[in-house]
Amino acid sequence: MSEEEYDQEHYEESEETQHSHMNEDGSYFTRKKPGVDKAMMVSWGIAMASAAFMVILAGLIVIAIMEEEEEPIEFALAPAIVSDETEEIEKKTKQKQMEKSSSSSSISSPIVIDNVADITMENVVMNFDQGENDVQVGTVGSNLGNLGLGTDMGGMSMNIKMPKLMGSRCDKADRMRRLKREGGKEKTEEAVVKALHWLKQVQNQDGSWGGTYAPSMTGLALLSFLGHCEKQDSPDFGDTVIRGIKYLLDKNEAQAGKMYSRKPSYETGICAYALGEAYIVTKNFRPKIPGIDKALERSVAVIVEKQKADGGWDYGYSTVMTKGSDTSVSGWQMQALKVAKMSGLEFKGIDKAMDKAMENMMRVRGPKGGFGYRTAQDKITLSGVGVLAMQMWDPKKYKSEIKEGVEFILDSHPGRYEKPHFNKYGWYYHTQACFQAGGKAWRDWNNYFQDEVVDHQNQDGSWTDWGHAGHGPDAASVEGKVYTTTLCVLMLEIYYRYLQNTGDDKYRKGATALKNS
Question: Is the pTM of this model over 0.90?
Fold first, then answer.
């Protein structure tokens, strides 16, 4: 109960108590005859004194309750607009309150719970200093109902320090604006939310997804939730996200930074990518999820250490140079390093590793602008890997290579009136590469892929691979559906998940290339 509600309730009770003894003429006792009745006056005086005493007592109770109440979130936050004098007063007040509450639950201590539904978040106003690589992401709060399109970020205005590239996913209004502006449809957003509910239903008891490839499937599932800014305080998916993160943290600690069941390099890259996003998206919210930064540090160290001499990565993190590195494996390591760079944490060797990775992408670049597997080829399924890597790291340096790569991707697919040949792995990268390119390239690809993906969604919200199943779990199994569903969700979140680095439309401001950030 708020202070205003408490005061109002006690005020109304006092009014009712007084009026229950009051006659129609406003007196408290009936006069039998004119004149001054001394007994009546004495009784009246006693009644007034008693009423005054009760009011004073109620006020003392309210003050006592106010002093006892904790304000766990408000202490940690700074009002968006305050005068210097007000700010100084509030600092002193908050310091006293924090000293008083230090013996019990302190807001500086992380709160970790098993079920996010057990807590209630406050609606608050936050303002963080923004560097040149940060962006306002809009409204955040609590009591976030689901309006049919995922988390409704209710509450008061909040400016969260978020990387520019991720600056749209956590503001529902901006998310929907960008969806519409970039050619997304209402049914596309509905498909995303429907899929997230299906993923929630098939999560394992230990917080993972899948079976044979549980770590990588868990990483992809978490990326899908985080791409929609479903974090630990999400009313529908908070508990799901917390359990998934905890599973990866336990795996990370047990395997000294790696997270895998069958394929060390593939799975660790995907999981590190997920932990990097989890750190960025969840760090400013409660309940706190400790240990993500340390786990990410361990994984980044593994990735940097296991880079091959040619700048890429290989199966099992082998560094033996009997053959060239694997472009597919390298793609996930580069995405993990990308998000680690965006996190604001300090990591050794990322810039050098990414510069070497670009050299490897140039090594496997084919004569038509595509990219190959281990050697220079124009392989359509992997061309998006090379293009996306150059876009996110140093788009100015590789401007011509990016342009030729996008053209190769679009020229290699059938015309818009032919049935598309679905390849979930290739399309995951092609969607990002064409979106980053913007302009006509994006409009053409969006017309090509969006309806095809949305219209193949199953009634339960999942997807079953309807094209080239490729490697990995059986397409018809639950794990196979998790694999296909997560990649489809990540494709359909493209409209707001990451902003463009290299858009060619004038209304796009673009985002700073990571190499220069």
Answer: no
